[in-house]
Amino acid sequence: MASSARIEQAAAAWLARRDSGDWPVAAQAEFDAWLRAATAHRVAFLRLQAAWQESGRLAALGAGLAATTPPPRGQWPAAVAEPATAVRGPTPAEPAAAPPDLARLVFAPRPRDRSRRAPLLAGAAAVLLLAVALLGLGWRYGALEQADYRTAMGELRELRLGDGSQVTLSSDSRIQVRLSRRERHIELLRGEAFFAVRKDRQRPFVIAAGRRHVVAVGTAFAVRRSPAELRVVVTHGLVRLDSGPDRAGHPQPSTLLPAGSVAVASGAGIVVRTGPVAEAERQLDWRSGFLDFRDTSLADAAAEFNRYNTRKLVLGDDAVAALRVGGHFRWSNLDTFVRLLELGFPVRVEAGRERIVLHSR
């Protein structure tokens, strides 16, 4: 399958050739065949075509204005469309208010009250002694770092833990970190996180998500937790996926996941797919602000966008949910994705402030 960059280049070539004027019947037939070959082809072309049309609109907005003389500040819309309602600055008849002269402003000195400072210093000393005592107890009993991290909807956060490991926390996610001399323990309470683990054979790095644990020493992987399943994507090294006992209390075997593995654990068991590391990396494009779809149902694509946006995509019927889409999209640019659906698919859009409902047509 061609990469996203190659598909974009091919789409740009077709767009340039079509608009050059040299467009025989044979070229149209070849172009139609290219569009039918993959959903990603059609999406890429529609996206470039929309950008091309928008650039034409920008040129039209600038018509009638001298290129070397931009309109005055605050008057751009009025210079093109409504000169009678232009926003004006202060005129000679309406002078702007002069700023206050602060050159001679003098602040009175604050009196020093030693009787009030003594209790504050004593309190600070007591807090310092308590902190030192707690650190000593933590070292004795193994607690070296404890923290709780979370992100809001649409927020990504990069963290560096006390052991040198790095964490990228996805949208609407939460982890609890407990580092000790014996173990590095991370509780994934919600959402998804990517871990680049610093190697330490004496202290395994354990991600706990419900009754399942992901164990590593020095590797790179992501763990995603949802109510229905747990997904593990490994991009470097080797990790171990442990499950708790089954309903009858019998222990379950561990699953080893090398680089390139994608494991999905649910109530039905664990399904592992292993391929090139580049394929696994594409599932983690959210770290750079993108979502990558490969012949994905619109239902699944909408669910991905909804993980990052407060304005939700809602599917109005089963027919629209079953449509297949492909392409590389910014998860923050929901409106562009919806416009492409309108242009290239049998989709009718009902846009509201808090949600966008998609209907088949």
Please tell me about this protein's structure.
This protein is an alpha+beta fold and 361 residues long. The protein has three domains: 50 residues; 140 residues, Jelly Rolls (Sandwich), CATH 2.60.120.1440; 72 residues, 3-Layer(bab) Sandwich (Phage tail protein beta-alpha-beta fold). It has nine helices and 18 strands. The radius of gyration is 29 Å and the shape is elongated. The protein starts with a helix and ends with a strand. About 12% of the residues have low confidence. Keywords: Membrane, Transmembrane, Transmembrane helix. This is DUF4880 domain-containing protein. GO terms for molecular function: sigma factor antagonist activity.
How would you summarize this macromolecular structure in one to three sentences?
The chain is an alpha+beta fold.
